[in-house]
Amino acid sequence: MSVRQITTLPELVHRPADGHKGTFGRVLIVAGSYGMSGAAALAGMGALRGGAGLVYLAVPDCILSIVAGFEPAYITLPISTIGNTFSSDALRQIENQIANKDAIAIGPGMGRSAHSDGVIYELYKRCEQPMVVDADALNALADQPERILKHAGSRILTPHPGEFERLTKQVNAADQKDRIEQSIKFAQAHNVVLVLKGAGTVVTDGQQFYVNTTGNAGMATGGTGDVLTGIITALLAGGYAPFAAAQLGVYLHGLAGDIATEELSQPALISSDLPKYLSDAWLQVLGNP
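Request: output the structure for the sequence above.
Response:
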């Protein structure tokens, strides 16, 4: 099968002048654990700046006040814990929040436990909405790779090279051409959109692929992937098809990093800077001065 290379950005989804917050999508992000509250907050801020009308963060109740304190514009939902990990009731609580959401993200900063992994496996399998799968959700799937193919809705997996090695049980290719080939084969085999992060991030659904042209080494710092998860999920909720959401998401994310480094430098860039510069990235993509 011939796989097409895509070199242009997708057509932008129109935002009607009479739209309201429901028009622009409801996002649910399942994220965070004790000591990793920042991952949930960064994903939430990425979703807000990605254009979502409403952003809900389902987080362990032990960190809810911390996550809520980062940003007043998203909504925090407490999920019960036992000790510092999700309780056996967490899955039911999260599923109760899913019905009216347009896109889901799972994984940033979740940590690993039997109950957390159970939440990941069941939501990944049963959720009909499009879902972005990142971080500890990828690590859970890597432990049981037979589950990756079993999903009720569209799935976008966003591994960095180490996570991709765990998913594939193969050493990552060093050559970009081989990285593209590995990515395409994985997407085809599992019927997912793959976002293989790194210099020249590869996006593919197995039928087409895109190599991102934005971004820089200053973005190689903790938390930038969490922001990307939020951006892509917002685009899904806003009406973009999965491949288009992933493609536009990585472009905007990298462009925000490029604009930020012009002012801050690469060494000084941190992940919480990226949402602040997404507005400038959007202006460029929208063609505004």
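The mean pLDDT is 96.
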